[in-house]
């Protein structure tokens, strides 16, 4: 039996000049919502991968790279978990990737741990995810990482009283806590803290509570997409701008993909974030061009497309480093300390935490030509997830 296996390997090597495993594709399971209220998350990720593959092809380490797309219909952690199990057991994937929403990433982390499969997070941003398995790494952001800089910026700019509005789940609680900690430590005061449901939020009563608290500004974290549009609509309709209340937020609120349709009420909104489509660099120009060519009619890419582009690049690097022979432990060692020349600016995977270290920019919504953009005007370099 052993001899027969050996002979097969030798025969495979003779025929192709490569070891037999090289005939098989490397498989990457992409788990994200592709339908339902967060369908855009999966689409952005898949389109970001296509942009990368347009520039770098579909082979790495001498092997074909196959992406197996799985729709969680999310947020549904149980479905994400079942899909991850299927990908590991039946499809025998080499990597798990994607993960738009924190609850889905948390549901899959134990499977990555048990199967020793690298799990590369393209978005899910609650701080704790990377602590749930030694096989998790993240190339996107964490909520404390992007919420702390805007608290510092607000204090420096004379804002002393703030109401907070966050989605009522782990990333929202992270954002609320991180903002409050930095803001109150610097002498600011949180006069109202509102949490809105993740599913089908009805913003009107929450926005009224903010108005009644009469803060100088409202700090907002809502998951990217339609919720930001609905919040800004309510903000406008209830006259908060007229009452002199400013909007400061994480950049999820003015996500590049929805910003062009958000209207002039967003002009002047200040956000902190790791990526803006307006980021001025050759790397970003290359990315935007490849994204447009690979995905005609898809519109403007957002931070999830960028994270997928960087994340698939990180996976290609690992495959190349390992000569196409994937082993979970060796793959994780290869991710640690990796530097990526991202469209957002240079990023590093912290070898100690496997989490992303990056510049966080302060941006203002402005018209560039005839279109709304998040224009960067200040930055905080080398920001780690605070507390790690
Ligand atoms: C998350 O669930 O972790 C999440 C979703 C959307 C965002 C940010 C974080 O915009």
TrEMBL record:
Q: Which residues form the signal peptide?
A: 1-22
* CDD domains xrefs: PBP1_RPA0985_benzoate-like
GO terms in the biological process aspect are: amino acid transport
Domain called Leucine-binding protein: residue spans: 25-367
Q: Could you name the domain of life of the organism this protein comes from?
A: Bacteria
**Gene3D superfamilies tied to this protein:** 3.40.50.2300
Q: Which InterPro entries match?
A: BCAA_transport, Leu-bd, Leu_Ile_Val-bd, Peripla_BP_I
Keywords of this protein's UniProt record, alphabetized? Answer: Amino-acid transport, Signal, Transport
Q: Which family does it belong to?
A: Belongs to the leucine-binding protein family.
Q: What is this protein called?
A: Leucine-binding protein domain-containing protein
What is the species listed in this Swiss-Prot or TrEMBL entry?
Ralstonia thomasii
């Amino acid at each position: 039996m052993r001899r027969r296996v050996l002979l097969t390997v030798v025969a495979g090597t003779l025929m192709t000049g490569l070891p037999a495993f090289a005939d098989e594709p490397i498989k990457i399971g992409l788990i994200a919502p592709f339908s339902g209220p967060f369908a855009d998350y999966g689409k952005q990720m898949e389109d970001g991968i296509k942009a990368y593959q347009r520039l770098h092809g579909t082979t790495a380490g001498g092997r074909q790279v196959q992406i197996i797309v799985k729709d969680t219909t999310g947020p549904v952690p149980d479905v994400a978990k079942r899909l991850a199990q299927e990908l590991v057991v039946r499809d025998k994937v080499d990597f798990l990737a994607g993960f738009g929403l924190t609850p889905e990433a948390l549901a899959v982390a134990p499977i990555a741990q048990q199967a020793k499969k690298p799990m590369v997070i393209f978005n899910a941003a609650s701080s704790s995810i990377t602590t749930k398995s030694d096989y998790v790494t993240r190339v996107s952001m964490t909520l404390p990482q992007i919420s702390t800089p805007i608290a510092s910026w607000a204090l420096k700019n004379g804002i002393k009283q703030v109401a907070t509005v966050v989605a009522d789940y782990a990333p929202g609680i992270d954002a609320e806590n991180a903002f409050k900690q930095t803001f109150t430590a610097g002498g600011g005061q949180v006069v109202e803290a509102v949490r809105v449901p993740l599913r089908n939020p009805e913003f009107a009563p929450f926005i009224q509570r903010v108005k009644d608290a009469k803060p100088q500004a409202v700090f907002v974290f809502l998951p990217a997409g339609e919720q930001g549009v609905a919040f800004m609509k309510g903000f406008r309709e209830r006259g908060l701008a007229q009452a002199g209340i400013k909007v400061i937020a994480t950049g999820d609120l003015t996500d590049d993909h929805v910003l062009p349709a958000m209207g002039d009420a967003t002009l002047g909104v200040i956000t902190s974030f790791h990526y803006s489509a307006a980021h001025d660099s050759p790397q970003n120009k290359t990315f935007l061009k490849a994204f447009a060519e690979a995905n005609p009619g898809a519109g403007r890419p957002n931070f999830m497309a960028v994270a997928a582009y960087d994340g698939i690049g990180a996976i290609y690097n690992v495959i190349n480093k390992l000569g196409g022979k994937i082993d979970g432990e060796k793959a994780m060692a290869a991710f640690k300390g990796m530097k990526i020349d991202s469209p957002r600016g240079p990023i590093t995977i912290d070898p100690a935490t496997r989490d992303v270290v990056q510049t966080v920019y302060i941006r203002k919504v402005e018209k560039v030509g005839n279109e709304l953009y998040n224009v960067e005007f200040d930055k905080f370099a080398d920001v780690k997830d605070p507390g790690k």
